[in-house]
Amino acid sequence: MYSFNYSKPDTIEAAREMMRSAEDGIYLAGGQTLIPAMKQRLSAPTDVIDLSSIGELTDIDVSDGRVRLGALVKHADVAGSDAVRSAIPALADLAAGIGDAQVRNRGTIGGSVANNDPAADYPAALLGLGASVHTDQRQIPADDFFVGLFETALEEGEIITQVAFPVPDRAAYAKFPNPASRYATVGVFIGVRDGVTRVAVTGAAPCAFRSAEIEAALNAEISARSLDGITIGADDLNNDIHASAEYRAHLVTVMAKRAVTALPK
Q1: How far is CA 256 from CA 35, 51, 182, 189, 201, in A?
Q2: The whole model's pTM is what?
Q3: Which of 170-191 are b and which e, b meaning 16 or more Cβ less than 10 Å from the residue's Cβ?
Q4: Which of 9, 134, 149, 236 could be stapled to 206 by a disulfide with Cβ–Cβ 3.0 to 4.6 Å?
Q5: Sign of torsion, CA 227 95 181 238?
Q6: Where residue 216 falls among pLDDT bands split at 50, 70, 90?
Q7: How far apart are CA 113 and CA 25, in angstroms?
Q8: Do residues 227 and 241 make contact, with C-beta atoms less than 8 angstroms apart?
Q9: What three-state secondary structure class fits 198?
Q10: How far apart are CA 51 and CA 73, in angstroms?
């Protein structure tokens, strides 16, 4: 590791001020991506601003048809929350399948969403449920938040404070995990609310996305057979040592069928 300035503010305003005065600052949430990146010299900030002492960022609230998760809520807390599981069981199940126990007890929803790894699970849940990302400055619909590979709509210095999920009528998530990392080779999240079905895909492309073809088929009939014959194009999908673009394209419909089958009756 190399030298850097470390700060641990206890308010959002203090964190903002530290970021404004830093030469090249970065916020630290759970550190599951940032710390390895710094160790490998892939990231070299002059200032690391640790948000873990800001208590308001750890709240879980389920009320008024919404599940609101503070940015520093850990994956294990989402998975273990009776309130979350009662409102959106698929969201609790998704969190329970992230990484391993060590990752789940350190990683945070805000850190995952801000990082926007192409194989992360939470982006699919945000898009599939029509969630919104709340920051210290504004509210951003999930459909506008994920921009590209490791890119989001966040402005420099902007802090995620909360992610709010509308409670769906039904929802399910199906993932084909990488056996080592548990990242999604392909994951599909389906949310049904007020008669409208949303389908979000992660792991397949440089950024999580909604599948218009699958949504149209399921909005006509919510059944696995309604997806027969749907072919996902491979041209813009990820192609790496873990899976070819063609294999991922095939997995999208397979995981979508599994998610449909897993939807509560």
Answers
A1: 34, 36, 18, 8, 9
A2: 0.96
A3: bbbbbbbbeeeebbbbbbbbbb
A4: 149
A5: positive
A6: very high
A7: 19
A8: no
A9: strand
A10: 12
Burial 74-91 (b: 16+ CB within 10 A, else e): bbbbbbebeebbebbbbb
**pLDDT per residue as tens digits for the range 228-260:** 999 999 999 999 999 999 999 999 999 999 999
- In order of start, what are the domains of the chain with their CATH numbers? 5-50 (3.30.43.10), 55-262 (3.30.465.10)
Tell whether the model's pLDDT for residue 1 goes beyond 60: no
Structure tokens at 32: 């599951």
What mean pLDDT comes out for the span 158-165? Answer: 98
**Which residues are registered as beta bridge partners of 66?**
63, 166
Identify whether the C-beta of residue 255 lies closer than 8 Å to the C-beta of residue 188: yes
CA distance 232 to 175: 17
Element (H, E) at 74: none
Q: Scanning the structure block, which residue is given the tokens 């389908």?
A: 199
Distance, in Å, from the CA atom of 38 to the CA atom of 50, rounded to the nearest integer, reads 14
Residue 217: name the closest of 202, 206, 232 by CA.
232
Q: How far apart are CA 129 and CA 219, in angstroms?
A: 15
Is the CB of residue 122 less than 8 Å from the CB of residue 75?
no
Asked if 31 contacts 8 with a C-beta cutoff of 8 angstroms, the reply is no
Residues 190 and 57: their CA atoms lie apart, in Å, by 27
**pLDDT digit string, tens, across residues 31-57:** 999 999 999 999 999 999 999 999 999
**Do residues 218 and 197 make contact, with C-beta atoms less than 8 angstroms apart?**
yes
